[in-house]
Amino acid sequence: MIKDVKHIIFDLGGVLLNVDYDRTARAFIEGGITNFNELYSQRGQNDFFDAWETGRINTEEFIKGLQKHAPMTDEQVVNAWNAMLGDFPLRRLQILQQLRLHHDVLLLSNTNEIHEGTFNKILADTHGIPNIGVFFDKVYLSHRVGMRKPDKEIFERVLDEGGFKPEHTLFIDDSIQHIEGAQKLGIQTIFLDKGMTIEDNIFLPKQ
After folding, report:
1. What is the 3 state secondary structure string of 148-203?
2. Domain identity same for 110 and 53
3. Total structural domains in the chain?
4. Within a domain: residue 57?
5. Beta bridge mates, 106
6. How far apart are CA 124 and CA 113, in angstroms?
7. Residue 17 pLDDT > 60, yes or no?
8. Could you read off the pLDDT of 146-173 as tens digits, one per residue?
9. Cα distance between residue 54 and residue 147, in whole Å
10. How many CA atoms lie within 13 A of 67 on its CB side?
11. 39 pLDDT exceeds 80?
């Protein structure tokens, strides 16, 4: 049971931003990387993608690394990688604004340089908002902080920097391994299972 929550940590993709991992997989498979699903998925990924999401390799190295598997152009790699990104439903952004009136609201996302630029462009193009940071008290992006979920170090950093007690902190994510990582530190969690949304299943309008 969720109770006494003062601080709320949100994942981005699949929670606030609609994503479809299959679209990226299909794009890379069509581009010639036939084993892409073995390299990357929502549930797990190899060391190359971990290095990309923690900033240990740059965009040029990421693109060239994928081009070793298939003769794709730089633009084709970027477009395929971005194919998973969808839209930001307005109601979710409104929920963030409402929650900040009474809670600390933070973003914790495993992401990368290409996606950061693209999801901020989506936000600007569709809602006229320059970047996702305007909705949060603090933003933690894995490629900028050099750590990623579900490792305990990233959760410890968020708690320590905010001065948050885990029992008063709620973490919402759509990847079960990330939920389990937060739970090990005593953080309250909500697993956003397939088909669930924060607007339809968690933060409902008061009747």
Report:
1. CCCCHHHHHHHHHHHCCCHHHEEEEECCHHHHHHHHCCCCEEEECCCCCCHHHHCC
2. no
3. 2
4. yes
5. 9, 138
6. 17
7. yes
8. 999 999 999 999 999 999 999 999 999 9
9. 5
10. 14
11. no
Question: Can you tell me the distance from the alpha carbon of 96 to that of 114, in angstroms, rounded to the nearest whole number?
Answer: 24
69, pLDDT greater than 80: yes
Check whether residue 177 and residue 99 sit in a common domain: yes
Q: How many helices (H) and strands (E) does the chain have?
A: 11, 5
- Do 122 and 61 fall within a single domain? no
Q: What is the structure's pLDDT at 114?
A: 97
Do residues 115 and 81 make contact, with C-beta atoms less than 8 angstroms apart? yes
**Whether residues 14 and 30 fall in one domain:** no
CA distance 42 to 103: 29
Query: Are the CB atoms for 172 and 198 separated by under 8 Å?
Result: yes
Q: What is the largest CA-CA distance in the chain?
A: 56
Is pTM, for the whole model, over 0.70?
A: yes
pLDDT digits 0-9 by tens, 53-62: 999 999 999 9
> What does residue 122 show for φ and ψ, rounded to 5 degrees?
-60, -45
Which domain range does residue 43 map to? 21-82
The token pair at 88 is: 């930001």
DSSP state of 130: S
Asked whether residue 44 carries a pLDDT value surpassing 90, the answer given is: no
Sheet arrangement for strand 169-173: 138-141, 104-109, 7-10, 169-173, 188-191
